[in-house]
Amino acid sequence: MSRSYYVIELSARWLTVLLVALAVLMVLAFGLGYGAARSTDASVATPGGASPTPTILTQVIPDPTVVEPRPSPTPPIATATPPPMPPTAAPPPPTPTEPPPTPTARPKPSPTAAAGLWVQVLASSSRPSIDEARAKLVRLGFDHEHHQLVTGDVADGNALVKLRVGPFPDRMSADRVVERMRAAGFPGAWVVAP
């Protein structure tokens, strides 16, 4: 009994062509699959931007060997309509009660008394530069109630004003804001304790 073996010999050139063709087919299949998924996601996206939960659609295929009984039609049941109700007197007006309590305004944090860590954004003796920096902080989402102005040393008749934002409950939060401030154009931002 003799065994015969089949050997496929490919030159380096043909092997390279085969590998490149396989790579192109894989990239093409990935691109088509990704495009199909994106078009499906875009077609079911909601206007608010949140994607809905996926639903699984199933189709029930009836078994031709099973005969389902059909319900026999039932005659409609006659129901008597109740006689109209005589008109009733209008409900009495509501008794006056105490007015609802007026909501109290949330107390604003006092920058000088607030505990926690602060991020010093800028120190300058120029009031216009401080005002410009405060406007930029508001655009970044830090309201004026979260700003702290600390007057420092007086040099040449001008007081040094330090602009800070905060307070932050922990060092990690303050460090994240420092990185955000540096990226927003305040390279000298750093964490200070009150």
How do the strands and helices of this protein lay out in sequence?
Elements: H1 12-44, E1 117-124, H2 127-139, E2 147-155, E3 158-168, H3 171-183, E4 190-192
Antiparallel strand pairs: 1-3, 1-4, 2-3
Describe the structure.
30% of the residues lie in helices and 16% in strands. The protein has 194 residues and is α+β, with helices and mostly antiparallel strands. Among the domains are: 10-40; 117-192, 2-Layer Sandwich (Alpha-Beta Plaits), CATH 3.30.70. A four-stranded antiparallel beta sheet has the order 2-3-1-4. A hairpin with a 2-residue loop joins strand 2 (147-155) and strand 3. The longest helix is centred in the first third of the chain and has 33 residues, at 12-44.
CATH topology of the domain at 117-192: Alpha-Beta Plaits
The gyration radius over C-alpha positions equals 38 Å
Number of helices: 3
Basic shape? flat
- Number of distinct beta strands: 4
Second CATH tier, the architecture of the domain at 117-192: 2-Layer Sandwich
Question: What is the structural class?
Answer: alpha+beta
Overall pLDDT confidence? 76
Question: How much helicity do the residues have?
Answer: 25-40%
**What strand order characterises the main sheet?**
2-3-1-4
Supply the CATH superfamily name of the domain at 117-192. Answer: Sporulation related repeat
Give the percentage of residues in beta strands.
Answer: 15-25%
Show unreliable segments. 109-113
The description of the largest β-sheet is: 4 strands, antiparallel
CATH class of the domain at 117-192: Alpha Beta
Q: What string gives the helices and strands in order?
A: HEHEEHE
**How far do the termini sit from each other?**
94 Å
